[in-house]
Every structure is written in C-alpha cells, then in structure tokens.
Amino acid sequence: MQLRAAFTLVLMLSPLTDAWGDEYQDTIEIFQNAGESGSFFATSYGYAVFPTIGKGAIAIGGAYGKGRVYAGGAYMGDTSMTQVTLGFQLGGQAYSQIIFFEDQRAFDEFTSGNFEFAAQATAVAVTAGVSAAATTTGSSAGASGGKNNATTVGRYYKGTAVFTVAKGGLMYEASLGGQKFSYSPK
User: Fold this and answer.
1) How many domains does the chain have?
2) Dihedral, CA atoms, 128, 65, 148, 90, nearest 10 degrees?
3) What is the pLDDT of residue 141?
C-alpha cells in the first residue's frame, strides 16, 4: 500500500512536457548556465540528461525519469532511471538531473546498465533544495534554486559527476536505496 502511494506521487509529479518544445535542450541550457556544471560540457566525454525525475515517498519511496545520452555532443540513445528507497522519508519532489562521464570507460560503464546503491539525505521545499549523498560513485553535496536561479557545485568521482536542479515539491528524506539505469542505443 505504501509503495503504491509512493509511485502515485511520482506519477503526479511527472509533468506532461512533450508539448512544451524540446525539454532536453531546455534542461541542458539550465545546466550550462548553473555554476560549475557549465564547464563540464567542454571537458566531458558525454552526459545523460533527465529533464524531470519524479520522486515520492511514505517510508518506502520510488523515483522514475526518462532521459537521453550524449557523447561528443551527439545523441546516442535513451535512458531511464528507477529508484527504490527505504527509510525516514515523506513527500514528493521533481528535479532535473545530469550525469557527466569523464571518459569512455565511465560512459561504457553507464551504458552497460550497472546498478548503484546509494545513501542520501535531502530536503526540498518548492524549488529550493539542499542535498548530500554517499554512493558507490562517491559523495556529493549541493544546493539548488529553481531553474531560473540554479547553482551547482561538483567534481568527478570515479569518472562521473552528478548535478541536480530542483523543480518543485516538498520532501524530507534520510534513506537507503538503489538506483538502476537502463540504456537503449538509438
């Protein structure tokens, strides 16, 4: 029952954006103009961009988002992210995410669909958020405004750098969980 409620929240947070033009290019532009993440475009091997990831939780949480993968600026294929978490968590949120790949090894590891465990703590209110994460790919921390005033901080760890920009919601979370990325070449 709780898992069903969490996924219902995720679906409610996933806006129908197909009619809003090129959501992928719009999201890329947000990250190009959001502090440190902008410099990663010139130096990374490639990146995966998720315009909207919806997340919801009542003790058991779930998240889902669709994205695209690029290498050398060229569209390479589609990706999706699913996440299940368990812990102290309540609410729902939507956010944009980009994952940069430092080199071909990191790109190949991502496109092979490896599973990643994560421990995280986040607080998101409307479009301002703070987060901290410790994962198998490293640890990170950041703060974000909405898409119009986003700032990002980050660095590569084991070949990847992850940035997020809050889109909205209200969520408190201290959880353990796992993420799974799937990839389909174009």
Assistant:
1) 1
2) -10
3) 43
